[in-house]
Each structure stands twice: as structure tokens, then as C-alpha cells.
Amino acid sequence: MRIFGISEASYYCSSFTKSIGDAEGSITEFKNKYLSGPRHVPSISEGSPLFNQYRDCSLRDVERSLFFAASNHRKSHDLMFSSSSPWAQVTLYYGSWYASRALLGMFGCTIFKKHIVDVNQGTLGNQELQLRKIGPGVDEEPTSSGGSHERFWDIFYNSIYSLVPMVSPRLSIVLSPIGGDPAWQIKNRNEINYDTHRGFQIVKDFNKSFSPAKHSLTLPGVLSTQFQILESLLEITCDFAKLIGLKTDALNGIGRSALFSDKVRRWIYTNKPGKIRKSKIKTFA
Questions:
Q1: Mean pLDDT, residues 235-247 taken together
Q2: Averaged confidence pLDDT in the chain
Q3: pLDDT band at 138 (very low <50, low <70, confident <90, very high)
Q4: 45: helix, coil or strand?
Q5: Taking CA 105 as the corner, what is the angle to CA 104 and CA 110, rounded to the nearest 5 degrees?
Q6: 244-276 as b/e, with b when 16 or more CB fall inside 10 Å?
Q7: Residue 27 in contact with residue 61, Cβ under 8 Å?
Q8: How, if at all, do strands 43-45 and 128-133 pair?
Q9: How far is CA 280 from the centre of its chain?
Q10: How far apart are CA 57 and CA 116, in angstroms?
Q11: CB atoms near residue 279 (< 10 Å)
Q12: Average pLDDT over residues 172-184
């Protein structure tokens, strides 16, 4: 899957035009109706009404995804006590999924259950996006077998490598799969969420090691790893959003301010628990 470069992504995001109608709704429904449905369109080119509508719909999806990534980060802190620590793991996982979805989206790419939209042409003024199936066929996006989340992470890690040189080494480690396994996050989420033995092991480990004063430094095992993955992905995505000028009207239904940062501070991090570092709030907002 091909993504935009920095200047191409900045151009793509800055061209947001507030299209109305279907472009204000679900990106999945938009794709089903205009790209992969009865009116199947394998590619859309800049300058066409469909391109403008899809771009605006996709960027709104990016901003909503980034909002939910921050929301899950904030919620995970409320769950940091022993009996709910397995659910903290699940919450952190979904925060990472939303952050990764947002990161891809601002670079022109969206992963659906059976399709992807990626970049066919990135040239400013002549951009073109293409719809392709996920699968083993010619011109399809190759991926491992498994469910939609396994496929998502496989495609994500294979697509995002071009951003690694632009990210601090402190953060860039999360742009590669943990232990070389793209499905590490979803496997651990599933085991902890659906296996009571694994879930209770997290409870016991959390009870032994966790100190509210030191927070992330004392989280046990996979919970610690998942926490670091989300914080790093969220920081990377917020940094790129600021760099390339992501700004839409997707969150206009809450609050008076039009600024994403104001909405995040007001609707997510207000009345924060003391264990959320102020520096992190500033980074994410």
C-alpha cells in the first residue's frame, strides 16, 4: 500500500473543502455507495467532485479517529486498578487502532474489511487515489490470513515504514511489529479479553507491581507494552497532524471552539487523574 509523502499529505489535508451530504457521514458507507458498490469506481482523480467528497469524508474520519484514540488513552487511566486491568489492556488496544487508522488516513490511505484505498498518484494538483481488494490476486493488497484486525495490522506495518526516518527513535519502534509479529496486539487483546485465565493473570500481576505514583513504570508485562504503544502512536499521529495541518469540521457537534486541541482538552482531559502527565496532554492536544 502506497502512502503520500509529507508535502503530498500536507497538500491533501489543506485542500479540505467542507463537502456536504454523504461526505459528512461514514467513510465505510461512502466507500460502499460510490467506490465498491453498484457504481464501482476503481480510482478517483483530483479535480473531480467524487475526489473532493471522498477526501473530505476521509479527513473527517481521521479527525474522529484521532479524537477516539485520545479518548481511549484517557479512559485507560480510569481503569488502572487490579480488577479492571484486563479491560485497560483492551481499551489501550483500541486507542492504538484508532491512532494507526488516523495516521494512515492523513497520508491518503484507509483500510476497510475487504478493500483498501491508497495512493496511485501523489503529485500536487494531480493526485489520484485507488480502490483495491485485499487478497492474493494480481493488483490486490497482499496480507496474512485472519480476521479484519489481523489484516489491518499486517497492512499497516507494511505501509508505514517510509515514515520511520521522520520519527524520533524514541517513538519509531512502534512503527514496526512487536517481536516481528504484526498480530501481537490483537492476539494479546483477544487472549486477555476472552480467556479468563489470561485475564486474571493480568489482575494478579497488576496487583503485585503497580504503583500509582510511578504509573507506567510499574505496569506489568503486556499491559506495559500496550500502554507504550498507544502513547507513542498517539504522539506520532498528533505530531504529524500538526505538521501537515489537519483541520476539519468533524468535531463541530461538541463545544464552541473550532480547534481540535481545545476539544481534546475540554472533552477528554478535563478532570484528569493526576497520573496523566501534563506534558502528555500538551503533546496530544
A1: 96
A2: 93
A3: low
A4: strand
A5: 85
A6: bebbbebbeeeeeeeebeebbbeebbeebeeeb
A7: yes
A8: antiparallel
A9: 17
A10: 15
A11: 8
A12: 94
Q: Is the Cβ–Cβ distance between 89 and 188 less than 8 Å?
A: yes
**pLDDT per residue as tens digits for the range 50-69:** 999 999 999 999 999 999 99
pLDDT value of position 256 = 86
Q: Is 218 helix (H, G, I), strand (E, B) or coil?
A: helix
When comparing pLDDT for 142 and 223, which is higher? 223
DSSP string for 252-266: TTSSS---HHHHHHH
Task: Choose the weakest-confidence range: 9-18, 182-191, 224-233, 265-274.
Answer: 265-274
Beta strands in the chain (DSSP E): 43-45, 110-111, 115-121, 128-133
Give the whole-angstrom CA distance, residue 110 versus residue 121.
15
Helix (H) or strand (E) holding 117: strand 115-121
Range of the domain at 211: 6-284
Sequence-distant (6+) residues with CB within 8 A of 124 are 7, 8, 11
The total domain count for the chain is 1
Contacts of 181 (CB under 8 A, 6+ apart): 187
Q: Which helix (H) or strand (E) holds 132?
A: strand 128-133
Return the CA Rg of the chain.
19
Whether 11 has a pLDDT exceeding 80, the answer reads yes
Query: Residue 285 is which amino acid?
Result: A
Task: With respect to residue 1, please indicate whether it lies within any of the assigned structural domains.
Answer: no
User: Looking at the domain assignment, is residue 79 inside a domain?
Assistant: yes
Binned at pLDDT 50, 70 and 90, residue 90 comes out as: very high
18 within a domain of the structure (yes/no)? yes
